Structure formats: C-alpha cells, structure tokens
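Blinded run. Sample ID left blank on purpose so nobody reads anything into the name before looking at the predicted structure. Input follows.
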Amino acid sequence: MISLQRRDTVSIYGELRFLTWAGVMLIAAGVGGIVTKHLDEIGPLAIATAIGLASIACYVWCFWRRRTARVSLVDDYILLLAALLASADVGFIEHQFHLLGDGAWQRHFLLLAALHGVIAYLFDSRMVLSLAISALAAYLGVERRNAFLWESGGNAARAFLCAAAIFAWRFLDARYRKATTFTRVFDHFATNIAFWGTLSMMTESSTRVGGCLLAILFAAASATYGVRKREEAFVIYGWIYGVIAIDVLIVNQIRGSDATFFYLLVSTIAATIGLSMTHARMRRQS
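Blinded prediction complete.
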C-alpha cells in the first residue's frame, strides 16, 4: 500500500503465477469431475478422445508460441495443463481398456515418465520435469499388491533405488547440459524420496533402528550440503527428518505414555528453536 501511495512500481508476478496455477488445477479437477459423474452418459471412448484432443491442442499452442518467440507466463502453465491432461488420459485409457494387461498396468507410469521427460527437455520446463520424476517414482514404487514405496519397510529398497535413479539422471543432465536449470528439481526429489525410504524402514520393528540411523546420516549430509550451497531447504530437510529419526529411536526405548509425551514436547520445542536459529543464521550470511 505504501508503494502504491508513492506511485512506485509494484510487482504482481508472484500473484499472477499463483492465480494461473490455481486456474490450471481447477481445470484439471473439473475434467476429473466430468469423467467421474458423466462416464456412463458420454462413454469411455468419447471421454478419452476429448481429453486427448484437449491435451494435444495445448501442446500445439505451446509449440506455436515457442516458434513465434512470444512466450509468456501463461504458456508455462498451459504446458503444465497439457501434461496433466495427458496423464489423466493415459491413466483413464489404461483403467478402462487395460491395454497393458491386468498384471502390467503400472507400466503406464513409465510411459508418462518418458513423455513428460521429452516435453520437459523440449521446453526446458521444470514443472513438467517434476511430473516426469513423479511418474518414474510411481512406476518404481508400485508392487504387485499395489502398495506404494512409503507404505511398508519392505518397500524401502524401492525408494532408495528411485532416489539413486534420480541422482544418476541429475548428474547426467549436469554433465551434458552445462546451462541446465533442472539440477535443484532433481536434488529436491531425490533427497525427499531417500528420506521416505528411511521412514518406511521405521514402520517395522526389524528395520526401525537401521532406518533411524540411516535417516540421521542422510539428515547430516543434507544439512551440510544446504549450508555449503546456501540452500536453506536442504537444511530444513535435515532438521525435520533428523528430528523424526531421533524421536522414533528414543521413543522406541521409552516406557510410559507420560514420559513419551514429555519427551516429544521437549524435542519439538528444541527442534523449533534450533531450526529458527539456523534460519536466522543463514539469512545473515546470505
């Protein structure tokens, strides 16, 4: 308001990004609602065709805008909408027609990972890259019993495999694309998925201690990397996942609900203070 009174230039870029993102999410949600409520009336083939044509139209628009060199903020989110519609269409087709067979339905995630990956590199889009990585994680994390990688200790190996695959992709991308803008996207996804693997180990008594110790090791590495690179998010990851691991390790040895509650209260307060101090310190150094 002071800037407006002074007639200074006020940036609304962040607000426009949020509104555009919200619009894309509402459209995607609306498509899902139409499919759910009117499947019998419209028919699966007509729905699949309509969603596919809408996705193709969005892709064509983005290609045309790129060729005319008139790219704007809205174009990035139209590209995101195209990718979301493509994901919905591929998933819907597989659910309705079982083209990949009953035992291999999860392979459509691999198809989506490849599609979104190609589009992400064509348009240098980090948002679409995040969809590609998510599809890859879904493919690697699905078992025959349809349990995802974070639901049981037995799936921890899948989480670590997924994190390793993303890190390998990250280093190849940095090696062959010197001006890449994808590095941080890979780092955030791989780090969190690796931590999810340790959390899944904590759900079973036989692997709980190992999961806690591994999470503490990862937390120290993440925090160290964050401090060295001035990346506050990785320091926060280290604090949050490290505190969870320590809490699980100690609570597992405590007997009595009162003692457990008191420890968790003290631990939460200490973690909050420590995180605030770290945040303030990094702000001063930046």
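Unblinding after everyone has recorded impressions. The chain is about 80% helix and 0% strand.
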